[in-house]
Design a protein that fits this description.
With 132 residues, this protein is α/β, with parallel strands linked by helices. It has one domain. Helix content is 36%, strand content 17%. The strands form 3 sheets. The protein has a 3-stranded mixed β-sheet. A two-stranded parallel sheet has the order 1-3. A hairpin with a 2-residue loop joins strand 4 and strand 5. Helix 2 runs antiparallel to helix 3.
Length: 132
């Protein structure tokens, strides 16, 4: 999913509510997601499923941490949290760069330092080559 398509989706659903500041405008920008574009489809699908389950669209942060998706909200039912967990788990099988099948790589830092990222073989090899 492209950044443009993701932002069109956010506009279509009326945006996401700011979980820190309820008096602010709805979030319509892709930049609520501190991830590469390869996970935008996962996040789109997660949001769609959450809304269908009755989620209030309130989020505090969407980001990558230790190679996986993190989707933070203030509160939600067990069903809401199960949906979030499902997509966080799926992120460990999805290349954050392109959205294709990927796996968690634990040596993506400089000089093979500990920096985790979920990537397909193509993008992992490109990163390793770039950092030689």
């Amino acid at each position: 999913m492209t950044e443009k398509k993701f932002e069109e989706y956010l506009i279509e659903i009326g945006g996401l509510e700011n979980g820190f500041y309820s008096d602010r405008e709805p979030i319509m920008s892709r930049w609520i997601c501190s991830v590469d574009d390869g996970w935008l489809q996962l996040i789109h699908d997660c949001i769609s499923e959450l809304i269908a389950a009755g989620w209030n669209r309130e989020t505090t942060q969407i980001k990558e941490k230790f190679g996986g998706l993190r989707f933070y909200i203030n509160s939600g039912s067990d069903e809401i949290h199960e949906i979030i967990s499902k997509y966080e788990d799926l992120s460990y099988e999805t290349c954050e760069v392109c959205g294709e099948v990927g796996e968690l790589r634990k040596d993506c830092g400089w000089n093979d330092g500990l920096w985790y990222k979920t990537m397909c073989d193509k993008h992992y090899n490109e990163l390793k080559e770039e950092r030689k």
